[in-house]
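WP5 quarterly update. Target: Type 4a pilus biogenesis protein PilO. Source organism: Actinoplanes oblitus. Length: 193 aa.
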Amino acid sequence: MSGLRSDRIWLFGGLALVVLLIVAGWFVMIKPKYAEASDMRGQVEDATTQFAQLRKRLADLKADNENLPEYQADKARYEKALPTADSIPAFLRQLQTLGSTLKVDVSAYTASARSTSAVVSTVEELPISLNATGRVADISKFVDALQNTQPRAVLIRSAVLTLGDLDSAELSLTLVAFRNTSASNGTTVTTTQ
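C-alpha cells (predicted):
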C-alpha cells in the first residue's frame, strides 16, 4: 500500500510540476510574446495611420503644385502692390498717366514723411495728397482705377469733391501708398483688416 501511496504522490507531484511548468511557461515565455505582438500591431496601426496622413498631404501638395503658376502670378501681383524699391516718383507719373488716359488732370502732388505701419512692421506708409480735375464720370473712373486697377497698394483716407460748372469737378484726395521695407520680396507679409 505504501507503494501505491508513493506512486500517487509521484503522480500528483508530477502533475503539479507539469501544471507549474505550464503556468510558469505561460507567464515567462508566452504572455510576453503576446504583449510584444500586441505592441507591434499597435505600431503597425500607427504607421498605417501616419502613412495615410502623409499620402493625403502628398496629394494636397501635388494639387498645390498644379496651381503653382497661379500662386506665382499672385506673388508677382503682391510684389507690385508692395514694392521694396522707393518708386514714388514712378508711382506719381503712373497716376498722372492714369489720369490722362481717363481724361482727368492729376496735379498738385504733395507727399508727407514716411512712417512705419502700425499693422505690419515691415511696411512703410507714405501719405500723398493730390488734386484731380475733370468730368464727374471721369473722376469716378479714376478713383475706381486707383483702388482696383493700378497695381500699387493705396488706401484713400479722404476725398473732397468740389463741383464746378457744366459737369466739371475737382477732387482732392488724401491717400496712403505702401512700401515693403524688408530686404527681399521673398518674405511673406500677412495682415488682416
